[in-house]
Amino acid sequence: MPAHRLPALSGRLAIPAQTRTSPAPLLDGFNTAAAEEAHHTLLGCLRSLRWARRVADHRPYPTLDALLAACDEAAYDLGPGDLTEALATESLPALPQDAYGAAHMALNAAHAAYEARFGHAFVICLSAVPPGESLDHVLTGIRSRLTNDPEDERVVAAEELRRLAKQRLTRLLQGAGA
Question: For the whole model, what pTM was predicted?
Answer without folding.
Answer: 0.79
